[in-house]
Amino acid sequence: MRFNLMKRKFLTEKELKRVSPGSPYYVEKGTYLTPLAQEVARQRNNAIIECESLDAVRSFRANNKILSIAANSHGGTLKEGLISLVKDIGYLVYDCGTSKDDSSDYARSVLEVLTLIQTGKAGSGILLDSDGIGSCVIANKACGIRAAHCYDRATAAKSRESHNSNLLVLAAPLLDRDLGNLIVTTWLDTPFLENNNQITLIDQVEKKLSQQTIVAVPGDCSCAL
User: Fold this and answer.
1) Per residue in 23-64, pLDDT tens?
2) How far apart are CA 103 and CA 123, in angstroms?
């Protein structure tokens, strides 16, 4: 029994803080999370993904080169070109659809993209719609998603280096193929600059929101304190 305890793997808050807020952390099945590690994971929205073996852990960690993508009817053509582009530069792609003029169908595709990122099966994602706003608003309601609507090279670079975005949103009708390619390659190639004030602020706000409670007030509304 003592030998088994010695062999048991532990995940501490120090190890968990090495990954970015919102990013999944992969552990071998049976790994024990210390109470403080559990609290840090909750506050920073780090999903803990259990894998059957160390090989599976390594495989999932390599998924930073896997990208999920979806488009509505306005972005179908641009999406196909972007899939070819990212494959050429070494990415594997989950094509989550859709090119149909059906908002409910696109909603399912968006949820699939978000789920793949949240569960660590994809390291990042791209959504294409008519104006870039709706998809961005929806995506940022999902835990662990940092979506950014980018429209040029500068916004693509800034969203990564300062905000560590993991989901790129594009307004397909406003972009030609060359500009779309430039935005995507810039976004994928720009590294996150650690220890910047923007991420610290995001962490503080997320922690504060996680501590809020909903209380009843007179009338038909409620407020968060």
Assistant:
1) 678 888 888 888 898 888 888 777 787 777 877 777 666 557
2) 25
Q: How many CB atoms lie within 10 A of CB 43?
A: 16
In a shared domain, residues 99 and 166: yes
Instruction: Please name which of 148, 212, 141, 153 lies closest in space to residue 179, comparing C-alpha atoms.
Output: 153
- Residue 94 CA, distance from chain mean position: 14
- In this structure, the answer to whether residues 146 and 42 fall within a common structural domain is no
Boundaries of domain holding 162: 63-189
For 172-177, which contacts have Cβ atoms below 8 Å and span 24 or more sequence positions? 172/71, 172/74, 172/75, 172/77, 172/78, 172/79, 172/128, 172/129, 172/130, 173/74, 173/130, 174/131, 174/132, 175/78, 175/151, 177/78, 177/81
Contact yes or no for 120/49 (Cβ under 8 A)? yes
What is the tens place of the pLDDT at every residue in 129-159? 999 999 999 999 888 899 999 999 999 999 9
Does residue 23 contact residue 49 with C-beta atoms inside 8 Å? no
